[in-house]
Amino acid sequence: MQPITVLEVDPQGSDALSLLREAAVEARALYPELIEQDAPWPTNGPNPEGGVYLVAYQGRSPVGCGALRPLEPGVAEVRRVFVTRPGRRCGVARLVLRELVVRARGLGYTALRLETGYKQDPAIKLYESAGFGRIEPFGAYAGDPTSVCFHKDIGHKEGDA
């Protein structure tokens, strides 16, 4: 198996957008009752100030991604965590999550929040095993019974995920 490398990329670049499209195809299959099949495909805007977009590569192939978006002073949201089927069960998601924590600390964040869907058991297990604790749905997810939300204080210490 080729080594996995994680690089910061343009969220509007072809690798980021191809992973986003693949994630959207899976989401539509997993949640057909929530996502209209003719709904517009999601897109990525440019990175906001304090934001980061990462893509994991196995060799030259993009196999996973993740992003940070600022929420409020000191707090960022982990978004767009996705791993392709060939990249799963190889530690890609954990590697991306670990790098997001490192980048978040480097940007001065002291806490992370995230949301995933209630049917996404592997993601829920990953976040719990990485020290994220469940919280009530926040922001745009408030009141959404399909959202499972998490929080983690990251301070400025080494290690995690």
UniProtKB/TrEMBL annotation:
It comes from the Bacteria. Keywords: Acyltransferase, Transferase. Residues 4-155 form the N-acetyltransferase domain. Signal peptide: none annotated. GO terms for molecular function: acyltransferase activity, transferring groups other than amino-acyl groups. Pfam families: Acetyltransf_1. InterPro entries: Acyl_CoA_acyltransferase, Bact_Acetyltransf, GNAT_dom. PANTHER family: AMINOALKYLPHOSPHONATE N-ACETYLTRANSFERASE-RELATED, AMINOALKYLPHOSPHONATE N-ACETYLTRANSFERASE-RELATED-RELATED. This is GNAT family N-acetyltransferase. It comes from Rubrivivax albus.
